[in-house]
């Protein structure tokens, strides 16, 4: 090294990514009628989504039919796969035949239709189409959906055609979505046009026509999709694009033009330490890096008039999960930028209810944006931390950080519900990519873990049913005595253990017992109904007399993204909108009615 060279190494810290403006959904037009109507002359391709044999469709009267019939005659797979047909008789010379099986199989649900719709749209875009027309021609709707059960567990039910149509449209938008970190973030088509073909004998035809003719229907679709774009942007792959401060800033920017949607960011560490000690412990190590520092984002939307229904949503927003001191090894960190998708889904939902102008309900979201970093100031196993509720927690494994960052926020939510007038109703839902165990248990489905109140009111099974109707599958997991026994600390210096030392995938009931932990540590229930205590010792918590709060924990670890590197899915936003997207639906859910 020469005397003119410096021995000091210079490290250039990465800069925060510039925040883009929230992108608008691709414009949507919804019509009823033939795809060959002159109203659709601006389109440059036709996608024909049908479960009918070719000879029973309206295509038989079109000049395109001889060509399609030739394909059908000479290609035995034509009725079973998406096919691109080049013909001057179709808009833009492109016709995409997208057949859906009419046979009902034990495993079929609405996702069979959604998958085919996305495949067909991808084919159209790949061929160069910028303005596709999607014709939905489904005759026997039950044959392409599912058989579920209402909350009395005995009555078979089917999603309505409108639910299926909404799910199809949102699946098309999912196919069009481009992540913020992509080189090109401009959506690949300029207009999405959907036309519906209804048979004369279609059940509830008048209802369907009336709904599709109402501008409120399409405004709601666009409002929900706007929230899903925000959700997927936050839930994306690059943890530096959406670190905790970036998430908070992006949410504030998206909401600044929405005066009814209030956003508060708490990022002072001393405040976090006082108000949310379990969260602060997880975020302690990241304080050394300003762009990774933790924060709590609070969002609130209230419809006009007296709001007697109060929905509290608590989301896990771990922007990157190293595992902490119990570090993830063997490539297990891959995809951990998605550990914020629970909070991201709730952000999107809040934006959507605002844009839908929902009345008569108060919605509050508490979102924990934290990076679970590893370093000299990491929180470690065996630490004993006193939660906001007064319950003492022994850290069992630092990679079980999600339940830690949500627990104090749940306590705040339930305490606020306890202050409501007796005639008001409250509900708490947590949403998190919490455990690997749920992936082992249910594969590509999410888990609903309800407390006894939510279970007895039928809320859990109603969410399951609504999820089925929009292509977001859930399974209901019961809490058992063993789950509460599992988290009882064997030590004399702590009330609870956050978990054991093993990964959830190696633990019996690995996605159920975290629900018990959240209930106990937040003070929702002290473990023995009837023994309601004011203090913290012995797992007491702060449960008030006279009000039992329905609580549901949603574990979406398996369904938050399309593989490790694919797009975020915005799961379970569609289910939440179906369940909570109007005053009437919330009222019915909280009162325990089986039908919304």
Report on this structure.
This protein has 17 helices and 19 strands. It has helices spanning 65-74, 111-126, 161-176, 205-213, 215-234, 244-255, 269-275, 277-283, 341-355, 402-418, 437-442, 452-456, 459-469, 481-487, 513-521, 573-580, 583-591, and strands at 28-32, 45-50, 83-86, 94-99, 132-137, 148-149, 156-157, 192-196, 261-266, 295-302, 309-321, 361-372, 384-386, 392-394, 425-432, 446-450, 474-476, 496-497, 551-555. The strands form four sheets. The chain has an eight-stranded mixed β-sheet with strand order 9-10-12-11-15-19-16-17, sandwiched between helices. Strand 11 (309-321), helix 9 (341-355) and strand 12 (361-372) form a beta-alpha-beta unit. Helix 8 (277-283) packs antiparallel against helix 10 (402-418). The protein is elongated.
Can you summarize this structure?
The protein is an alpha/beta fold and 596 residues long. It has helices at 65-74, 111-126, 161-176, 205-213, 215-234, 244-255, 269-275, 277-283, 341-355, 402-418, 437-442, 452-456, 459-469, 481-487, 513-521, 573-580, 583-591; strands at 28-32, 45-50, 83-86, 94-99, 132-137, 148-149, 156-157, 192-196, 261-266, 295-302, 309-321, 361-372, 384-386, 392-394, 425-432, 446-450, 474-476, 496-497, 551-555.
């Amino acid at each position: 090294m020469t005397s003119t060279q410096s021995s000091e190494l210079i490290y250039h810290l990465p800069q925060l990514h510039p925040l883009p403006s929230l992108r608008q959904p691709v414009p949507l037009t919804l019509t009823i009628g033939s795809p060959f109507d002159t109203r659709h002359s601006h389109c440059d391709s036709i996608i024909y989504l049908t479960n009918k044999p070719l000879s029973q469709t309206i295509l038989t009267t079109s000049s395109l039919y001889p060509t399609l019939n030739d394909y059908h005659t000479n290609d035995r797979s034509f009725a079973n796969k998406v096919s691109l047909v080049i013909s001057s008789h179709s808009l833009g010379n492109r016709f995409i035949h997208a057949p859906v099986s009419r046979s009902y199989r034990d495993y079929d649900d609405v996702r069979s239709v959604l998958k085919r719709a996305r495949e067909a749209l991808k084919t159209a875009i790949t061929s160069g189409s910028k303005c596709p027309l999607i014709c939905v021609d489904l005759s026997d709707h039950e044959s392409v959906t599912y058989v579920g059960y209402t909350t009395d567990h005995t009555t078979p039910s089917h999603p309505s055609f409108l639910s299926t149509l909404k799910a199809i449209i949102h699946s098309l938008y999912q196919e069009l979505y481009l992540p913020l970190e992509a080189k090109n973030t401009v959506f690949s088509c300029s207009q999405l046009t959907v036309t519906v073909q209804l048979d004369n004998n279609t059940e509830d035809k008048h209802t369907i026509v009336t709904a599709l003719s109402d501008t409120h229907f399409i405004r709601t679709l666009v409002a929900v999709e706007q929230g899903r774009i925000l959700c997927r942007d936050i839930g994306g792959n690059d943890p530096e694009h959406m670190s905790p401060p970036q998430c908070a800033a992006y949410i504030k920017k998206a909401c600044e033009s929405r005066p009814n949607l209030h956003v508060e960011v708490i990022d002072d560490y001393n405040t976090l330490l006082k108000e949310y000690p379990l969260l602060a412990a997880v975020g302690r190590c990241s304080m050394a890096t300003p762009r990774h520092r933790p924060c709590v984002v609070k969002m609130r939307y209230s419809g006009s008039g007296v709001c007697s229904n109060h929905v509290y949503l608590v989301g896990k927003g771990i922007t990157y999960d190293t595992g902490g001191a119990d570090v993830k090894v063997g490539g297990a960190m891959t995809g951990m930028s998605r550990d914020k998708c629970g909070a991201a889904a709730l952000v999107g939902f809040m934006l959507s209810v605002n844009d839908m102008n929902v009345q008569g309900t108060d919605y509050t979201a508490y979102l924990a944006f934290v990076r679970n970093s590893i370093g000299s100031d990491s929180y470690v196993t065996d630490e004993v931390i006193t939660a906001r509720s007064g319950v003492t927690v022994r850290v069992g494994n630092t990679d079980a950080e999600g339940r830690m960052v949500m627990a104090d926020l749940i306590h705040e939510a339930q305490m606020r519900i306890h202050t409501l007038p007796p005639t008001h109703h409250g509900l708490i839902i947590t949403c998190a990519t919490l455990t690997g165990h749920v992936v082992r248990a249910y594969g590509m489905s999410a888990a609903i873990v309800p407390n006894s109140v939510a279970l007895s009111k039928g809320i859990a099974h109603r969410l399951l049913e609504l999820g089925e109707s929009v292509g977001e599958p859930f399974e209901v997991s019961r809490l058992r005595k063993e789950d509460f026994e599992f988290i009882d600390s064997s030590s004399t210096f702590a009330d609870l253990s956050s978990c054991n030392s093993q990964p959830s995938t190696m633990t019996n009931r690995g996605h159920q017992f975290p629900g018990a932990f959240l209930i106990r540590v937040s003070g929702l229930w002290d473990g023995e109904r009837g023994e309601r205590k004011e203090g913290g010792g012995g797992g007491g918590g702060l449960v008030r007399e006279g009000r039992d709060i329905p609580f549901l924990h949603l574990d979406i670890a398996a369904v938050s993204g399309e593989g490790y590197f694919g797009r975020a899915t915005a799961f379970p936003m569609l289910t939440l909108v179906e369940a909570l997207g109007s005053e009437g639906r919330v009222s019915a859910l909280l009162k325990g009615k089986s039908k919304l």
